[in-house]
Design brief:
alpha/beta; FAD/NAD(P)-binding domain; 4 domains; four-stranded parallel beta sheet; 16 helices; 15% strand; FAD/NAD(P)-binding protein; L-asp_N-monooxygenase_NS-form; FAD/NAD-bd_sf
Length: 579
């Protein structure tokens, strides 16, 4: 009997477990396996990111319409026994919410709702597997992993599990070493009265329960999705509310409470806001490439990443994207900002913009536009009430092309530096492709109009530690804040991860980074690559910490993607070959 250990029981651990037994049923029904799954969180399947008990003001940034691509699990036969299928996310919803009209505003569910689904999906499978004696759950964190061929030992604070034949690492967000800036602020707070610092963006409940009052002035290090969740938590959970004024545009008015801060001060390195996704399917169709365009794009990406003549730089991606964007933008007609450019001129303008996001052009929204006005213009584009700029258009087309990029760019055969360049391009797109719902931006607009959201310091202010907190300075404006919230999520940069198991694996040279800015180097099936001349080690890494070998590690749909299936099929094939 082959003994697997799955370390990490969030969505990827769930799908690894599902894939293993589904593949076993389909390819080696007579084989015998058992699994030990390590997950300390009380809601396995969900993980802490999708905690079913978190506040409802934490929203997903993906629509329920897009979640139609999250598949269910087929039934699994184990001898004469059957584990019943589990529905897809969409099938799990009430029937009236499964296929809303194209003109209805898209729904963005709370993270807790997704967590409830994931946990329910896990529990059905786990209960059956435990009943058959095939699954052992260890509700602890693995702090050390040793390998003396051919077996591993996984060690927690209280337990040691031995005789493990294969390990699958499916851990998600990991603690990292504090940046120089955050460490300086942490040292400052230790010597300062009445100043609060939160170095991690989640859980927001810590902020809700802290001594943050109506007298506090709160700054946010970061101007993205986590900041929006934090602001909602600090207002809506303290008696404030938003009044819906227009359901078609999601325009809202803010009604303040007495107990929450009356001034919020966000800032980031570029000061640019997240960009809202289209309001509904009807508007989103403007940005959807045809199947032929996506197929041509896929071939170009695959050729650049894995072809006979791998790309020497990131321009193959820029050119492939521009080839999709240019004809589609011209088809917009009067829905776009008026222009007289040819398809070829739009093609080259797209490449130039992707290579330089601050490019000035009449078809591009100027970065010098006041931030409140910029958010208002982008909302108008998102709801179809204003001509679409080329940058907004490119961002939404990129979102539709993203699954193809993630699929075709997995395990690329190009230089690591080029991989880092491509990932940087994708990260830069996330202002648009991972953008929030229109309603989130409308909430920020309402807060700014009421004077609670101060946008005067948003673009990389000068920050000085002072008595009682920090001083932010931008041009001639100054403000002293006493609460600093970090809303920047750590990137999966292996060399900065500060958790015991990763430090342990690095120290024993069982893993290595693909690039100083990236995650673990793995092969085409998710197994850790070993140096030439060394024996294969049955250690697979799926998900966030393999960034660089794969991309798209932060998307919930990618947790249920083909790369995990590739691992399970390879693992079962190796097991059959050993017999």
């Amino acid at each position: 009997m082959k003994h697997y250990a799955i370390i990490g029981g969030g969505p990827r651990g769930l799908f690894a477990l599902e894939s293993l037994f589904t593949t076993l049923y389909n390819n080696a029904p007579d084989a015998q396996v058992k699994v030990t799954l390590f997950e300390p969180f009380k809601y396995p399947g969900a993980g802490w990111v999708w905690n079913p008990e978190q506040v409802a003001s934490n929203w997903l940034n993906i629509t329920e319409r897009a979640l139609q691509d999250l598949p269910g699990r087929p039934e699994i036969k184990l001898g004469d026994d059957v584990i019943p299928a589990f529905p897809s996310y969409t099938e799990w919803l009430p029937e009236e919410k499964q296929n809303p009209p194209a003109t209805h505003p898209d729904q963005f569910p709370p993270r807790a709702k997704m967590g409830t689904y994931l946990n329910a999906r896990f529990e059905v499978l786990a209960e059956a597997l435990k009943g058959f004696g095939l699954l052992n759950m260890v509700e602890e964190t693995v702090i050390k992993l040793t390998y003396i061929a051919p077996v591993f030992t996984a060690i927690t604070e209280n337990t040691s599990i031995t005789a493990i034949d294969e390990v699958v690492l499916t851990i998600g967000h990991q603690d990292t070493e504090l940046s120089e800036q955050l460490q300086e602020w942490k040292d400052h707070v230790a010597q300062t009265d009445n100043a609060l610092l939160f170095t991690e963006a989640y859980p927001v409940e810590k902020m809700i329960n802290a001594n943050i009052t109506s007298e506090s002035v709160v700054a946010f290090r970061g101007f993205g999705l986590a900041m929006i969740d934090q602001i909602r938590a600090l207002t809506l959970q303290q008696g404030a509310h938003f009044e819906m004024l227009d359901n078609d545009t999601k325009e809202v008015a803010f009604h303040a409470g007495e107990n929450h801060p009356q001034r919020f001060v966000p800032f980031s390195l570029d000061g640019l806001p997240m960009v809202p996704k289209p309001i509904n399917k009807a508007v989103d169709k403007w940005f959807m490439p045809s199947d032929d365009a996506i197929n041509a794009f896929a071939k170009a990406i695959h050729q650049g990443a894995c072809g006979d003549h791998p790309a020497k730089d990131q321009y193959f991606l820029l050119e492939a994207m521009a080839a999709v964007v240019a004809p589609l933008f011209l088809k917009l007609g009067d829905k776009a900002i008026q222009h007289d450019l040819t398809e070829e001129e739009v093609y080259f303008l797209t490449i130039n913009y992707l290579n330089n996001k601050s490019l000035a052009h009449p078809l591009l929204l100027s970065h010098h536009t006041p931030i409140l006005e910029m958010m208002q213009q982008q909302v108008e584009m998102a709801v179809g009430e204003a001509p679409v700029s080329l940058d907004y258009f490119i961002g939404q087309v990129w979102r539709h092309c993203q699954p193809t990029i993630y699929r075709e760019f997995s395990y690329p055969a190009i230089a690591d530096d080029v991989v880092a360049e491509v990932i940087a391009l994708d990260e830069a797109s996330k202002r648009y492709s991972y953008g929030p719902p229109v309603e989130s931006i409308q909430q920020l607009i309402a807060l700014a109009k009421e004077g609670l959201l101060d946008l005067d310091f948003v673009n990389n202010p000068e920050i000085t530690c002072v008595d009682g907190g920090w001083q932010l300075k931008s041009d001639d404006n100054k403000v002293v804040i006493d609460v600093m919230l970090n809303s920047v999520l750590d990137s999966p940069q292996l060399v900065t991860v500060d958790t015991p198991i990763i430090k342990n694996l690095l120290s024993y040279e069982m893993i290595e980074p693909k690039h100083t800015d990236l995650g673990i180097r793995t092969d085409d099936y998710g197994y850790v690559e070993v140096p030439e001349g060394k024996s294969f080690v049955p250690l697979a890494v799926l998900g966030r910490l393999s960034k660089g070998s794969v991309i798209g590690v932060d998307a919930i749909l990618e947790c249920f993607g083909p790369r995990t299936i590739s691992w399970s099929e390879r693992s079962i094939a190796l097991m059959k070959n050993e017999k």
